[in-house]
Write a structure and sequence with these properties.
about 20% strand, 3 helices, alpha+beta, about 20% helix, 6 strands
Length: about 130
């Protein structure tokens, strides 16, 4: 039981430095978490700092516990579309778990769906940030 979701912060144009954040209980919120992190307008061009800002936003309601969140180089358990924070391209987009290869975004993958610029993503109302259950 849980409500598992994943957020990926792309640090460069390859999949070798992607940072994955996993939540066990708040997968339904991952789109809104990304919006709240980006809405601060902090460090949009600094992948390592922006990754930390996203993770802080993800965990702000539950810090200091043994379980509930994780950080990895590939996907954790998942129930939702995966939200990608693409720092080099300054875009947010989603990918489905079935599109991954070995738990990662395939090298050279280009999203077929909506890609939203950071600036536009933060302007959208919260209900626009709900992600689909897989």
């Amino acid at each position: 039981m849980g409500d598992r979701g994943n957020i990926v912060v792309r640090q460069d144009k390859t999949n070798t430095d992607d940072v994955w954040f996993y939540t066990h209980w708040s997968g339904y919120r991952i789109g809104e978490v990304v919006r709240e992190a980006l809405a601060k307008h902090w460090r949009w061009n600094d992948p390592s700092y922006l990754a930390r800002i996203v993770f802080d936003e993800l965990t702000k309601r539950d810090t200091g516990s043994e379980t509930g969140f994780g950080i990895s180089t590939r996907i954790g358990d998942n129930e939702y579309s995966i939200v990608v924070v693409d720092v080099p391209r300054q875009k947010v987009w989603t990918i489905e778990e079935g599109e991954l290869q070995d738990g990662r975004i395939p090298e050279g993958f280009h999203p077929f769906g909506d890609e939203i610029a950071f600036e536009d993503y933060v302007k959208q109302p919260a209900e626009k940030h709900h992600v689909c259950k897989t």
